[in-house]
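Um, can you check?
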Amino acid sequence: MLAANHLGRALYADAYADPTGAPNLARFAFLDAAARRFYPDWDLTADTTVANLRTAAGRDPHDRDLRDLVGELSTRSDDFRRRWGSHNVRTHAGGLKYFHHPVVGDLALAYESMDLRGDPGLTMTIFTAEPGSSTDHALALLASRATPQENLRESAHPGT
């Protein structure tokens, strides 16, 4: 994950808690126990994650960072290694994802992913909630709790 707005950061707070640097959703899914709580259908998420990594590896088999990630996950996660060995390849460009956020509970978010033409290899994913749904209300609550204090201070004191 390269970037997220403040609500995306709040949604993926556990993934952002990774002390090793930028959040990596594959590493989060397979190496962090919080992922099994965060993804109600963890098996589907795990299958999709591996299929997407296989697709990325097919596009650029010489990507050193991807090879390193696959190596790390293969040595540290039996679940990953088993799925990687199945050679499942597919791209998921849209659908519905389910989450269980520790603060606001269950969420059902429609998503659509699109490749960024100006930056080959990068994909932007947009999540939306059905207007008026319980997920919509939960996201509003999460957004109200997630306003970054640093941004509030910066806007009150520009240039400090």
Summary: The two ends are 29 Å apart (CA to CA).
